[in-house]
Amino acid sequence: MTRQLLLIGFIFLSCVGYSQNGINKDLKIELDSIMKSDQILREFVDSETSEGRKKEILKEVGRENDPSFRKNIWSAINKQDSINLIKIEKIIAVYGYPGKTLVGEPTNESAWFVIQHTSKIANYLPMIEEAAKKGEIPFTKYAMMQDRYLTQQGKEQIYGTQGQGKQITNKETGKKEFFNYISPIQNPEKVNELRKKAGFTSTVEENAKRLGIEYKVYTLDEIAKIN
Predict the structure, then answer these.
(1) Distance between CA atoms of 140 and 8, rounded to whole angstroms?
(2) Helices (H), strands (E): how many in the chain?
(3) Is the dihedral angle over the CA atoms 137, 141, 143, 146 positive or is it negative?
(4) Long-range contacts from 79-87, C-beta under 8 angstroms, 24+ separation
(5) At what angle do helices 139-152 and 121-133 cross, to 10 degrees?
(6) Fewer Cβ atoms within 10 A, N terminus or C terminus of the chain?
(7) Among 214, 218, 193, CA closest to 203
(8) Which of the 8 DSSP states describes residue 50?
């Protein structure tokens, strides 16, 4: 009887600990897996990823013996993004946004990454904003998504988080080349002040450097005329 009471007491305390913690462990595992699949191929195409690490990634995704995979990497990324979005939309339909309270950190950013990499930002931006205001995800994530949505709409971004590129003709050589730039900003004079307020620890200039872009202020009209 004493042993049974002790066992019941242990189960009860375990349940209390789970409810106090509030972490859905199964959902966390699922989201961590989705997050890895979202990031691993993007790590592969990152210019700073070493050849040794790229070989490790190919082995991890089971493509080490597929010579065509490197050429079709973006097709593979887009396919994985579509699969991940289906999974995330099902999760959101059941739980709402899976934030810090439900799955902990940094798992609370998993759904954000998937949505950020799709064309459905408009569908979820209000939900992301609400989650950010409640502290379920960092406010910087909402700021980045808002910037991406604005640039997708052909509008000026707010926080200077997004870079873009376009193919242009070099006037001196006549050859085609890729022109990278930080997307036009609504209020470039105050952008660093806004970034700090939003929680960013870097300036717009530092962020541009991280993206491998030389920072220069452009208007939408100026970008349209660069060809």
Answers:
(1) 45
(2) 11, 2
(3) negative
(4) 80/37, 80/38, 80/41, 81/38, 81/114, 81/117, 81/118, 83/37, 84/34, 84/37, 84/38, 84/114, 85/114, 85/115, 85/118, 85/120, 87/30, 87/34, 87/114
(5) 160
(6) N
(7) 193
(8) -
Q: What is the DSSP string of 55-124?
A: HHHHHHTT-TT-TTTTTTHHHHHHHHHHHHHHHHHHHHHHHSS--HHHH-TTGGGHHHHHHHTSS-HHHH
Return d(Cα 155, Cα 186) in angstroms, integer.
Answer: 9
Strand-pair partners of 163: 182
Phi then psi for residue 48, to 5 deg, are -90, -5
